[in-house]
Write a structure and sequence with these properties.
Blueprint (H helix, E strand, L loop, with lengths): L7 E2 L9 E3 L2 E4 L5 H13 L8 E4 L5 E4 L4 E2 L11 H18 L19 E3 L8 E4 L2 E5 L6 E3 L1 H12 L10 H4 L2 H12 L5 H22 L6 H21 L1
Antiparallel strand pairs: 1-2, 2-3, 3-5, 4-5, 6-8, 7-10, 8-9
Length: 247
């Protein structure tokens, strides 16, 4: 650890206070931290350089992670984010992380988020632009693994599609991107290497949004603004489920 390094609060950190101290990131640890650090070490052993390194626990009990240089993409999303190359690079990175995590998917307890069937890999559970790190409009990393847990590959892939194809109501994507929804969906699935159908993707997306809406409603007890987020997830879930049913 870098002793005496000054701390700077980082943007984001929706669920925890996250600070940077020199080349480290420090954030509150919990019962899930041991599993998350095991996951990050597995990714490191697999040669994945785009994820933080687990550096242990600080004397004050916070977890220590390496800092990934670059910038996350926050809303309103910049126009460059809608480039096809970013869509495909994101799916490829997710596939590499999933493949490297498979050996830990058997760990059924000690995760912050629920374990979801069918268990295939360890899901990031929030693989979206605001957790992706970019350098000069190029994808260089992904952060915030604290809510990771075992689950199906499509759970993560569907949420990435929701945010980046996109399907989310408030995406703010240019018209030419929205008009290319089918092409971009197929690019995403192909880049990941998934044979999921559009209907399977939409249904998983709706299920994912159901869970997200429920969690947002619960957290809105202390953060009332999350009620609006929950309402959007519920509208999007209903729309996607109806679309899947139409075929």
């Amino acid at each position: 650890m870098i002793e005496g390094a000054s701390e700077t609060v980082l943007a984001g950190g929706n669920m925890n206070a996250v600070v940077r101290a020199g080349a480290e990131v420090r954030r509150p640890a919990g019962a899930w931290t041991a599993n998350v650090h095991a996951l990050l070490r597995a990714l490191e052993r697999s040669g994945i350089s785009e994820t933080p390194r687990a550096l242990g626990i600080a004397p004050d009990g916070r977890e220590r992670l390496s800092y990934l240089p670059g910038e996350a993409a926050h809303y309103p999303l910049p126009e460059w984010l809608w480039d096809d190359a970013i869509l495909m690079d994101s799916a490829r990175l997710l596939r590499r992380i999933h493949d490297a995590s498979a050996g830990l998917a058997r760990i059924g307890t000690g995760w912050r988020s629920p374990v979801r069937e069918p268990v295939e890999v360890v899901c990031h559970n929030d693989f979206a632009p605001y957790n992706l790190i970019f350098d000069r409009h190029r994808l260089v990393g992904v952060i915030d693994f604290d809510t990771a847990s075992p689950g199906p590959r499509l759970w993560d892939l569907a949420y990435l599609a929701y945010r980046l194809v996109p399907y989310v109501e408030d995406a703010g994507a240019p018209v030419h991107v929205l008009d290319a929804e089918e092409r971009r969906r197929e690019l995403l699935l192909s880049a990941y290497g998934s044979d999921a159908s559009a209907q399977e993707l939409w249904l998983m997306m709706a299920t994912r949004l159901d869970a997200l809406a429920e969690d947002s409603r619960r957290r809105a007890q202390t953060r009332p603004e999350l009620d609006g987020h929950a309402a959007m997830y519920e509208r999007d879930a209903a729309r996607l489920r109806a679309r899947a049913e139409r075929g």
